Amino acid sequence: MSKRWENSTNMDISKRVLTEAIDSISRLEKVEVALRMYGHQSSVQPNRNCKDTKLEVPFYRGNVAALREKIKQAQPRGTTPIAYTLEQCGNDFPNDPNARNIIILITDGIEECDGDPCAVSAALQSRNIILRPFVIGVGLDENFKKTFDCIGKFFDAKNEKSFQNAMGVIISQALNSTTAQVNLLDSYIKPTETAVNMTFYDSKTSVIKYNYIHTMNNRGYPDTLPIDPLSTYKIIVHTVPPVQKDSVELTPGKHTVIGIDAPQGYLTLKANGTNEYKDLKYIIRKKGDMNTLLVSEADALEKLIVGKYDVEVLSLPRINLNDIVVSQSKTTTVQIPQPGIANVVMQNPGYGQLFLNEKNKLKQLYNIGENSVKETLVLQPGNYTIVFRPKNSKESIYTITREFRIESGAAVQVKLY
User: Fold this and answer.
1) 176 — phi, psi (to 5°)?
2) Which strands make up the sheet holding 411-416, listed edge to edge?
3) How confident is the model at residue 339 (pLDDT cuts 50, 70, 90)?
4) pLDDT reading at 143 higher than 70
5) How high does pLDDT run on average in the chain?
6) Domain 340-416: which topology?
């Protein structure tokens, strides 16, 4: 910081601009400032001191005089341990979960102690200790500027005026109220979709910053959300399936409208006639994709993103229905045949299996309980076979085979003796 810059030195101009900024900030309520310096205690000769950093003035109200005096006394002497200094900054902030912790790093050089400032900054942000830092490069060489992009939002102070402007922008971004509204757009590009959770992730650290249930205000418009402008966001809207928008940036002090395509319709499953099912479930998947999106129950109304879906009904036997179309604001009803009932009766417990019999081929569906003497099976219409042997029969020739047919709404008795 001892290098010449304009008609003075990096240090003298930095001290002047920083003092003016502190005077301005000190008049604001609910704002506290602390001062940590580095490279100011030890000379770089004969050995480089890579832990030369100190919290000169901690956070507390009314510390302006102390800040001004320490800034006035500051002299550049040693090296530039940026990574270690950032790491120590993480311990400087009061333990207040409601505070917005902001670091402004002022430097005229790059890391000189083999530390990794990028990794330290990312770690502090991922642990919610700080928001994304601001970095002001004072008279930096062009080759060094890009090395600070990973630390935080970089400002290039080419002269004293741009340094003052950078401080003003930082203070404005840190303190001004910023709002956003998320328009969940239907198929007609209108913001009519609502009542779903939205998660805001910091794009760089993947830390969850906000969860909001999308709401329409009393005028029928998407509600206004207070959002910190210091991060770039990835927004995931937890529709089924989820939709997301990447690299969302907000303008500090302004209201930003964010449009996300989220057109939705409805899907429901019903069984024809009287429903013998007490707890029938079905799986919803995107067309051609085996990943489960949702497990729902018959008669429930599920809201889905407009598109095509495959449904697997967990009946006996299972029913697979493909290419089901869900349209904007409409309800698609999937109907399956009314089942029948098989009352299976045994004189003694045993080992048995239920098969679907199609074209003289057996497909296993269900195992009879080893300790059961009576079971009631709700089955889709079709031809079935049960193969059974009592436990107390020790020879295979005592195996019993019963074939039967199930009709919709009808009951049959199957005797395994």
Assistant:
1) -70, 145
2) 374-379, 340-346, 411-416
3) very high
4) yes
5) 91
6) Immunoglobulin-like (2.60.40)
Q: Are 81 and 38 in contact (CB under 8 A)?
A: yes
- List the Cα angle 295/298/299 in 5-degree steps: 120
The CATH fold of domain 264-336: Immunoglobulin-like (2.60.40)
Residue 191: pLDDT band with limits 50, 70, 90 = very high
The structural domains of the chain, with segments of one domain joined by +, span: 4-175, 179-261, 264-336, 340-416
Number of residues that this document lists for the chain: 417
- 384: exposed, middle or buried (C-beta count within 10 Å: 0-12, 13-18, 19+)? buried
Question: Tens digits of per-residue pLDDT, 293-318?
Answer: 999 999 999 999 999 999 999 999 99
Which residue, among 280, 329, 320, has the nearest Cα to 300 in the 3D structure? 280
In the DSSP assignment, the letter for residue 398 is: G
> Residue 343 is encoded by which pair of tokens?
């009352």
Per-residue model confidence (pLDDT) at position 97: 81
Could you give the percent of the chain with pLDDT greater than 70?
98
Contact 14, 163 (CB under 8 A): yes
Q: What's the CATH number of domain 4-175, 3.40.50.410, 3.40.50.720, 3.60.40.10, 3.30.420.10? A: 3.40.50.410
Q: 184-207: buried (b, 16+ CB within 10 Å) or exposed (e) per residue?
A: bbbbeeebbbbebebbbbbbbbee
